[in-house]
Design goal:
- The structure is a single chain.
- By secondary structure, the protein is an all-alpha fold.
- It is built from 15 helices and no strands.
- Helix 2 crosses helix 3, helix 4 crosses helix 11 and helix 12 packs across helix 14.
- The relative contact order is 0.15.
Length: about 230
C-alpha cells in the first residue's frame, strides 16, 4: 500500500488529532493544487475545537443567522447568569430573563427545546458522540431549530469528525469562490458537488478554507465572522 493510500484511510468515527490533521493536509495537498497553495503560503490551520455538550450546541444555535459578535455577547451574558450551564439550570430561566439576556423569541424556543430534550432523556449527547454521522444528524434535526449547518459545526468542531463539510457556511463559500476564482459564490449544492474529491478529509479542507478566509489580506470579509467563532 502506498503512503497516499495509507494516509487517505480514516475510520468514520475517528476524531481529528494534530497527527491526523497533518495526514489529511498531506492528502489534500496532493490532490488539489489550490489547497496546497494555501498550505504552502499560510501554513497549517489551527485544529479549532469546542467542548462537546449542551453549552456548545446552545452557543451554535445562538450563532444561526446573526452577527457572531452578537451571539458571543448573548452567550457570555448567559454564562454570567448561569454559572454552570446545564440543561436543568438553563430551564430555571423564564422568558423575561432570557429576553433580558438577549435571546430572541425563536432562540428561546429552540434552546429551551434542546434543554428539555436532554433533561428528559430524549437526547443523550454523550451517547451521540459514539454514533455515526447520519445517526447524529437525524437525532439532532428532530429538534426544532436545529438544521444541517448547526449539526455540521457541532460535528466538525465539537466531535472533530474528519469528513464533515459545512456547505451552508458563508465564509466557506466566500473562501472557495476566491480560491477557485469563480464568477459567483457557489451554492450549498454546488459546494457539495465541488468537494467530493476531498473525501474523507473534508473537515480538514474546511479548516484550510477558514484559515484562508481569515488571513487573506485581500478579502473584504477577512476575519469578520470566524475570529469570534473559532478563537
Amino acid at each position: 500500500m502506498t503512503l497516499e493510500e495509507t494516509a487517505a484511510q480514516t475510520p468514520e468515527l475517528e476524531s481529528l488529532t494534530e497527527e491526523s490533521l497533518t495526514r489529511g493536509l498531506m492528502v489534500l495537498a496532493n490532490i488539489d493544487s489550490d489547497l496546497a497553495g494555501i498550505l504552502e503560503t499560510l501554513g497549517p490551520p489551527p485544529i479549532w475545537s469546542r467542548e462537546p455538550g449542551f453549552a456548545t450546541l446552545l452557543c451554535i444555535i445562538l450563532e444561526q443567522q446573526v452577527s457572531l459578535a452578537a451571539a458571543k455577547a448573548v452567550f457570555s451574558r448567559l454564562c454570567g447568569v448561569v454559572v454552570t450551564l446545564t440543561p436543568e439550570n438553563f430551564l430555571t430561566l423564564d422568558d423575561a430573563q432570557l429576553k433580558g439576556i438577549g435571546f430572541s423569541r425563536q432562540k428561546i424556543l429552540y434552546c429551551r427545546g434542546l434543554a428539555n430534550a436532554i433533561a428528559s432523556g430524549q437526547l443523550d449527547l454523550t451517547k451521540l458522540e459514539r454514533m455515526d454521522e447520519t445517526t447524529i444528524r437525524t437525532e439532532l434535526k428532530r429538534l426544532k431549530g436545529i438544521g444541517d449547518w448547526t449539526v455540521d459545526i457541532y460535528l466538525l468542531m465539537a466531535l472533530q469528525r474528519p469528513d464533515v463539510f459545512p456547505k451552508g457556511d458563508l465564509a466557506i463559500a466566500i473562501a472557495l469562490q476566491r480560491l477557485k476564482k469563480l464568477a459567483t459564490r457557489p451554492t450549498p449544492a454546488q459546494l457539495e458537488a465541488m468537494t467530493q474529491h476531498w473525501r474523507p478529509w473534508r473537515a480538514v479542507a474546511a479548516r484550510l478554507l477558514w484559515h484562508y478566509y481569515l488571513i487573506n489580506p485581500n478579502s473584504a470579509y477577512s476575519g469578520s465572522r470566524l475570529r469570534e467563532v473559532h478563537p
